[in-house]
Design brief:
This protein is mostly helical and 370 residues long. It is built from 15 helices and no strands. Belongs to the binding-protein-dependent transport system permease family. HisMQ subfamily.
Length: 370
């Protein structure tokens, strides 16, 4: 006996006849639903188009990109941007006070540090030993190239460093020193000994209550009066340690929040398996804590990179000070806006790259949980 089914009698899916709205329908629903909304939307689009056209006209169409004779005369009577100042003064922005004939070392050192940061983003290096080896090797190579004194390279003291390379150095050194400090402070604050926990908490809260510039001024100017000569060290290292301590105080609380978000049962299970304290911390607690605290950690790294601009106040020739020097002569004094746009673009490239990488890590780790 053969069963006969009428396809018309079978229930159809509820969305069988549903057709998604096109782009035009969505735009009408969002921006042109009523006459008032339409007028506001049209006025906003007109203003936006005008601003975009004005910016392109000034930055591209009417801009001067080069100065054949090396002077600013070509930019004196123009209505657009004078990017010739970047063409003529880019070396001082990137290298600062570094000796002209040795600037290849500064460029190579900057490339080494950027390559170290990029390589540390690859999953193959996400092992404590590999990552620490990579960063130590990259940092030592950077410092040897900048300071010299080996392989026939001329010695260049830190006082003569500057520009983008000095900014990258401060950032890398601050994070490299500050991250282990942050982990140690986070673990000490969770100590079962009340005295250790409270003293660590007082240190963290005390550092966080101070402006960064106060800590930098103290490290640069006050410590030489209160520390013995053998303990003072170079000014740049005192400031880096202060910078790293400030970073560590904030990052320690981020790591601690990541640790507290881990279910208590995981550590109890590790104890039941007989794992030692350091095995529990290194293999179970910290990996999950960093994963849970990844968004605020990326945010803190972004903030730290931007905070390097404060070192100009205590006499270091970072990229911001180099930008000021690039237009500080009478020849290019009118082109300060273009210089600051260039410096802002440098900051944007670094910060945007960090934020995009953070978003990639979040997606990767989210998929890894399923």
């Amino acid at each position: 006996m053969t069963a006969v089914f009428d396809v018309n009698t079978h229930p159809q899916p509820l969305n069988a006849g549903f057709q998604p709205d096109g782009l035009g329908a969505r735009l009408r629903r969002r921006y042109f639903r009523t006459p008032g909304n339409a007028m506001i939307s049209l006025a906003g689009m007109a203003a936006l188009l005008y601003l975009v056209y004005y910016a392109l006209d000034w930055a591209v169409l009417k801009a001067v990109w080069a100065s054949p004779d090396g002077t600013s005369a070509v930019c004196r009577d123009i209505a657009g941007a004078c990017w010739a100042v970047i063409q003529q003064r880019w070396r001082i922005i990137i290298f600062g006070l570094f000796p002209y004939d040795e600037q290849w070392r500064s460029m190579l050192a900057c490339i080494v540090m950027v390559a170290t940061i990029v390589l540390s983003c690859l999953p193959w290096f996400w092992k404590p030993l590999r990552l620490s080896t990579l960063w130590c090797a990259g940092f030592i190579t950077f410092y040897v190239l900048m300071r010299g004194g080996l392989l026939g390279m001329r010695v260049v003291m830190p006082a003569d460093w500057g520009g983008l390379t000095l900014t990258v150095f401060f950032y890398a050194a601050g994070v490299l020193i500050g991250m282990p400090m942050a982990v140690a402070l986070a673990l000490l604050r969770r100590s079962e000994m009340p005295l250790v926990s409270r003293m660590t908490g007082a240190l963290i809260d005390g550092v966080r209550s101070l402006p960064l510039i106060t800590i930098l001024f103290t490290a640069a100017l006050i410590f030489p009066f209160v520390l013995p000569d053998w303990l003072q060290g170079d000014k740049i290292w005192r400031v880096i340690i202060g910078f790293a301590l400030f970073f560590a105080a904030y990052q320690a609380e981020i790591i601690r929040s990541g640790i507290q978000s881990i279910p208590v049962g995981q550590e109890e299970a590790a104890k039941a398996l007989g794992l030692s304290y350091w095995h529990r911390i290194g293999r179970i607690i910290l990996p999950q804590a960093f994963r849970n605290a990844l968004p605020p950690t990326i945010n803190q790294l972004v903030i730290t990179f931007k905070e390097t601009s404060l070192i100009v106040i205590i006499g270091f020739f970072d990229i911001l000070a180099s930008g000021n020097a690039a237009y500080g002569t009478g020849e290019w004094s009118f082109a300060y806006f273009e210089v600051y746009i260039f410096v802002a673009l440098v900051y944007f490239v670094f910060v945007f790259s960090l934020s995009r990488y953070g978003a990639y890590l979040e997606r990767r780790m989210r998929f890894g949980q399923h």
